[in-house]
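Example A, followed by Example B.
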Amino acid sequence: MRKLNKWLLGSGLFTLALFLSGCVKTGSDGQPTGEGIIYNFLVKPMSNMITYLVDNFDWNYGWAIIFITIIVRLIIMPLGLNQSKKSMIQTEKMQAIKPQIDAAQAKVKEATTREEQMQAQAEMQQVYKENNMSMMGGIGCLPLLIQMPIFSALFFAARYTQGISDASFLGVNLGQPSIIFVVLAGVAYLIQGYLSTIGIPEEQKKTMKSMLIVSPLMIVFMSISSPAGVTLYWVVGGIFSSIQTLITNQFLKPRIKAQVAEELKQNPPKQVITPRKDVTPTERKTVENGATKKNTSKKGRNAGKQQNR
């Protein structure tokens, strides 16, 4: 069930990203036509801000992209931190009810009929319900749904703002792909993924390994054919995400762990399913116990014979 929920969430976000990528309509010249809600309410204002910084403060387009990206990330940061906090609380509480969840999952695997499977799944849901927890893992879709359009707007602003294609930054042509920026973007998100695994259980870390590789590869794949101005946005976003993850793990996580530990001490998890300590069938246990007794008696008789000799 948890894997299904994660798959649904991931596929939903991927579909949203594809939807947003089509929100900026372009003409035969490759430039936006000016149609679309996302373009008019998000992309165009950000593009105007970049142009304003360049025209009024004599900034380079590269510095303008960096500045706007950091400002937007700072505005979105409380949502990200709140999302991380909820996820951490859910993770810590999951450790407390893990024996019950494991017992319920064992029942699901051992079920031979549809009725038994439904009953075992209902018991698992009851464990979450009684302990006031979500089977979605406490991630919450709303913060992600709010962030996606804003990040997409930044992406398109860096791609379609007039003047960026003819500008250069630190000797790099912002209108052409740059392998240097591609490598920096990949490394930035690789570091961010590594930092996100610090302090988490080994079992959970194993399930995250694939995402740690897939995420940087996706960034590299999208950046390798994009103008350097767009890749610069990914570089700054990756560095910012790494700093945010480091702050979360070093300062937020210890406080949350102590808080959850105190809450669990005052309000222990409700026992819905008794963890199964021994799932060996009764017949098998009887045979094994009988064999053990026979071996013990045989050893005792042999020992007695040796003493008589």
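Example B, a separate protein, is given below in the same form.
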Amino acid sequence: MSIEQSSNLITICSDSIGDTAEAVVQAVIHQFQNQQVTIKRYGNIRHEDELRKLMEEAAQHKGFVAYTLVQPELREMIREEAVRLDLRIVDIMGPMMQAFIDTFDDAPQQRPGLLHQLDENYFRRIEAIEFTVACDDGRDLGAMLKADIVLLGMSRTSKTPLSIFLAHRGKKVVNYPIIPEIGPPQELLSLPPNRLIGLTMKPEYMLKVRSERLKVLGLPTGSQYASLERITEEMEYAASLFNKLGCPVIDITDKAIEETAGIIMGYI
């Protein structure tokens, strides 16, 4: 396995699929501005030679290794390799496991991947993800009646990534774009407020986000889409719609996806 050259590399090592470690790493990255970080994930590590190889590759780059290993021999080896290679490592699960052992006088099963066993919750998450992807950006209005959560917001209010994040927690989500020229569909008006979440953002921040989006697409930044006048118009319309629907409204300015999702889960 090769690692792309990067001045800021975080290597994730796991004897399962590595989702837990990557979720923690991503949450930390969001706390830092202007950090261009590359993440390289190694999953299903079972043998010492695999571990030794990835550690040697990681040592060639500036960065550190975050790991979730439950097998004692692999946990011991990664510590030895870190010393040998002068490479920083971060144990994601170890302190929590030790706290559990010390507090509850219990011993871990030391079996990788227990979190991702094919149980009922797993299939519920898969169903929710498939549902949410199929309903992205208001593509299936009828699906609103089957959704656990309907996210409402202007363009660039992080509806899609937030929907997928919630779907990974087993929630069927429909996200619907609010556009002043298009009135709300009847399906939306028929839903109870406790299944609706409005998303908003400070106008100045929205202006920056939309302008950056146009740059990425190679489009002129002076279009109406990225004008403060148009943004204010859309926000006023959205606010009136949220008020009509009686739904909670979350200002996502400067909020990470995880933080917004936590607020939504609290509401529902």
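On Example B: The two ends are 43 Å apart (CA to CA).
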